[in-house]
UniProtKB/TrEMBL annotation:
Reaction equation(s) it catalyzes: beta-D-fructose 1,6-bisphosphate + H2O = beta-D-fructose 6-phosphate + phosphate
Name the UniProt record assigns to this protein: fructose-bisphosphatase
Organism: Triparma columacea
Record bears the keyword Metal-binding: yes
Record key words, sorted: Carbohydrate metabolism, Hydrolase, Magnesium, Metal-binding, Signal
GO biological process, one term: gluconeogenesis
Required cofactor(s): Mg(2+)
Catalytic EC class: hydrolase
Keyword DNA damage: no
Signal sequence, start to end: 1-15
Subunit structure: Homotetramer.
Similarity section: Belongs to the FBPase class 1 family.
Length: 407
């Protein structure tokens, strides 16, 4: 039960206490030292994305090929393709599990009921199994130091298993994911999805066993969890009429569709851009009477057609974030789960729902905000922290932000 804690120095910068982290530069592998300020996270480096603007039915660009090009264009991301390949495999496996669940007895609650995750939510069989599938798929890439998931109580260390590692073992990344988002819908065959985000791992915070952690050890792990501005990549898989894999590495958003004939994700949506305005909103409207006045008033105007665009909005809400965000990215609109009197911080989780989806939304030209601040800039203090969110078409989200500033 040992946890190697090499982060020991705390320094005060601009009144904030920040850990002095020692990280390895990806190319030289020699240790370099920098200060990480919790107030102003460093801007994401500019990345190059391959230019593939054609979609082809027979000889399309596979996700594997795309990621090889990404690594060639961005040598610092050389290890990302093997991690993506793990996620891709997990998505294919989960897609199959979800599709066949009505026949294989995988519907319903885990352990016949009573299996509760750390957030007090009852787990479905598929929640537990998909979490396992992802953990295994990521562990075997050998690129992962720590991962945090909706279905894990604390971030878990991924032990190095030399025999299972296909490439150099570097523990280079931290992955956060929600294995089966929207799982309350899954038994009714409604779209669900997997959301993931990838950060660089502080290699000095190594955990040998995640049980019996002291408070300091826990802090070390939580320190590996960073604001969305530090994301290296994020994306989701949508299990619906098709299985989609939509991702960003910080230079645009790319969508791939699973071609079941060849078992590959093939580029189908190069460089997705969300329309700047639209007339669709997507909220659980039953909570509307409990929302903050600026939120409620803006949506009331949209209903009546008296908002900034003068258009009368229509409502589309699946109640499954990945499905709702996918439609919003493609058709435009506003998706959100605002705070209400009951849920002061809304419902969605910052680390593995809010931040990864906000990164995608911004990369597609949209906005994502709590109404008062940019979701990507929020520094997490807890793994399962919730965040109120409004994301989507730039002009429409800006209307909400302006309503909050006026209030
Ligand atoms: P679920 O509980 O089914 O996993 O955050 C989880 C989530 O679904 C989102 O996917 C979805 O947008 C939201 O909760 C739905 O919540 P409501 O049922 O309260 O509308």
């Amino acid at each position: 039960m040992k946890l190697l804690l090499l982060i020991s120095t705390l320094v005060a910068v601009n009144g904030y206490i920040t850990p002095l982290l020692s990280v390895r530069s990806p190319t030289s592998r020699s240790p370099t030292t920098f200060l990480r300020s919790t107030a102003t996270p460093p801007a994401s480096p500019t990345r190059k994305a391959p230019i593939f603007d054609e979609v082809c039915e027979t000889t399309g660009v596979t996700l594997t090929r795309f990621m090889i090009e990404v690594a060639m264009l961005n040598p610092e991301l050389a290890e990302l393709p093997s991690l993506f390949s793990g996620i891709e495999t997990a998505c294919k496996a989960i897609s199959n599990m979800v599709k066949r669940s009505q026949l294989t007895g995988l519907t319903g609650l885990a352990d016949g009921g009573g299996s509760i995750n750390v957030q007090g939510e009852e787990q479905k069989q598929l929640d537990v199994m998909t979490n396992d599938v992802l953990k295994r798929a990521l562990r075997f890439t050998g690129k992962l130091g720590v991962l945090a998931s909706e279905e894990e109580d604390t971030p878990v260390d991924v032990p190095s298993r030399k025999t299972d590692v296909m490439f150099d073992e570097t523990s280079k990344y931290v992955a956060v994911f929600d294995p089966l988002d929207g799982s309350s819908n899954v038994d009714a065959g409604i779209p669900t999805g997997t959301i993931f985000g990838i950060f660089e791992h502080d290699e000095e915070c190594v955990v040998e066993d995640s049980k019996d952690m002291t408070e300091d050890e826990m802090k070390c792990l939580v320190n590996t969890l960073k604001p969305g501005t530090d994301l290296i990549a994020s994306g989701y898989c949508l299990y619906s009429s098709s299985c989609f894999f939509v991702m960003t590495i910080g230079n645009g958003v790319y969508g791939f569709t699973l071609d079941e004939n060849i078992g590959e994700f093939v580029l189908s949506h190069p460089n997705i851009k969300i329309p700047a305005t639209s007339k669709i909103y997507s909220f659980n409207e039953a909570n509307m009477p409990q929302w903050d006045p600026p939120m409620r008033e803006t949506v009331e105007k949209w209903r009546l057609g008296t908002g900034r665009s003068g258009k009368q909005f229509s409502s589309r809400y699946i109640g499954s974030m990945v499905g709702d965000v996918h439609r919003t990215l493609l058709y435009g609109g506003v998706f959100g789960y605002p705070s209400d009197k009951k849920n002061k911080n809304g419902k969605l989780r910052l680390l593995y729902e809010g931040a990864p989806m906000s990164y995608l939304m911004e990369q597609a030209g949209g906005l994502s905000s709590t109404g008062k601040e940019r979701v990507l800039e929020i520094v997490p203090t807890e793994v399962h922290q919730r965040v109120p969110m409004v994301m989507g078409s730039k002009d429409d989200v800006q209307e909400v932000i302006d309503a909050y500033s006026k209030a």
